Amino acid sequence: MPPALAEVVSDFADMQGQDKLQLLLEFANELPPIPADLEEAAMEPVPECQSPLFLHVDADDREAVRLYFSAPAEAPTTRGFAAILATGLDGQSAADILAVPDDFYSELGLAALISPLRLRGMSAMLTRIKRRLSNA
């Protein structure tokens, strides 16, 4: 797991109960905006998410992959998951991202607080990122 993502997982491991949800909301508020030259219409939808989520994987430089996410402010859980992936994986090499365990999100300890359907949304985001990198 890349160090930046391992640090996020560690931050969640240090929290208990509702504090984990508060941390997720803090991540949601920190989701970077998409660049002005990237339109949401050109991004890939992730229909497995409960709320509208779009992502774009820029793998032109496989040593520093750029990840962009778009999710509405009214979807804090989805935004939080996207922000976790952005914080932990943006700028990492394609090889490092492809090596991330598919179920890494289980280490966040959110299963007791968030529905399995919402957690599958995070899994779907990572799966789509990996698929893009495998096909690039």
Topology:
Elements: H1 3-13, H2 18-29, E1 44-45, E2 54-58, E3 66-70, H3 76-89, H4 94-98, H5 116-135
Antiparallel strand pairs: 1-2, 2-3
Helix pairs in contact: 1-3, 2-3, 3-5
Shape: globular
The largest pleated sheet is described as: 3 strands, antiparallel
CATH secondary-structure class = Alpha Beta
Task: Determine Rg (CA atoms, Å).
Answer: 14 Å
> What structural class do the secondary elements suggest?
mainly alpha
Entry keywords:
136 residues, mainly alpha, Sufe protein. Chain: A, three-stranded antiparallel β-sheet, 5 helices, 3 strands, 46% helix, globular
Description of the structure:
This is SufE family protein. Belongs to the SufE family. Residues 10-131 form the Fe-S metabolism associated domain. InterPro entries: Fe-S_metab-assoc_dom. The protein is mainly alpha-helical. It has one domain: Sufe protein. Chain: A, CATH 3.90.1010. Helix content is 46%, strand content 9%. The chain contains five helices and three strands. It has helices at residues 3-13, 18-29, 76-89, 94-98, 116-135, and strands at 44-45, 54-58, 66-70. A three-stranded antiparallel beta sheet has the order 1-2-3, covered by helices on one side. Strand 1 and strand 2 form a beta hairpin. The longest helix has 20 residues, at 116-135. The radius of gyration is 14 Å and the shape is globular. The two termini are 21 Å apart. The model has no long low-confidence stretch (mean pLDDT 93).
